[in-house]
Amino acid sequence: MDIENTDTAIEIPESELVERFVRASGPGGQNVNKVATAVELRFDVARSTVLPEAVRERLLARRDRRVTTDGVLVISAQRFRTQERNREDARARLAAFIATGLTAPTPRIATKPSRAAKQRRLDAKRQRSGVKRTRANKDWD
After folding, report:
1. What is the pLDDT, as a whole number, of residue 121?
2. What secondary structure does DSSP assign to 37-105, as a single string?
3. By the 8 A CB rule, do 75 and 48 touch?
4. Are 20 and 37 in contact (CB under 8 A)?
5. How high is the pLDDT of residue 32?
6. How far apart are CA 59 and CA 46, in angstroms?
7. Domains and CATH numbers, the chain
8. With CB atoms counted within 10 Å of each terminal CB, which end of the chain scores lower, N or C?
9. Residue 73 half-sphere exposure, CB side, CA atoms within 13 Å?
């Protein structure tokens, strides 16, 4: 399985992927009850030998519910009626997940607000303060 980015290409060997075929849930009638078309694809991100260390750390740092505490990515695909299409779908989703870790996030450059922005903020605060002050001084008796 190949995953390509603009500057990096990763090929994941079949030995690192674990596929399990299970019965799908949801509508589908008799076909759902008798054919195991859903695919559960497991990929051990934490122990993978093909992923660079930086990519592995970025993928494990993501707060993704599909990644277990042991660092295993579990993708279940049951969108299609056939096992082969679900298998392709699971692999495409795995490729998309790994592709997100290939590019390093651009660091944020700290900036300061302009003088005009500071002035607008203070004017808005002054105006809001005035509105609240007029509400508070009402004598209701």
Report:
1. 97
2. -EEEEEEESTT-SSS-HHHHHHHHHS--TTB-TTSEEEEEE-SSSSHHHHHHHHHHHHHHHHHHHHSPP
3. no
4. no
5. 67
6. 9
7. 2-102 (3.30.160.20)
8. C
9. 25
Q: Are 5 and 100 in contact (CB under 8 A)?
A: no
Q: Are 39 and 79 in contact (CB under 8 A)?
A: no
At position 130, the amino acid (one-letter code) is: G
CA gap 25, 23 in Å, rounded: 7
Place of tokens 């299409």: 85
40 near 76, Cβ under 8 Å? Answer: yes
Helix and strand tally (H, E) in the chain? 4, 5
User: How many angstroms separate the CA atoms of 45 and 141, rounded?
Assistant: 70
48 closest CA partner among 38, 36, 58: 58
Examine the pLDDT at 7 and tell me if it is beyond 80.
no
Is pLDDT at 47 greater than 80 in this prediction?
yes
Q: What are 100-111's pLDDT values in tens digits?
A: 888 888 899 999
Helix orientation angle between 53-61 and 83-102, rounded to the nearest 10 degrees: 110
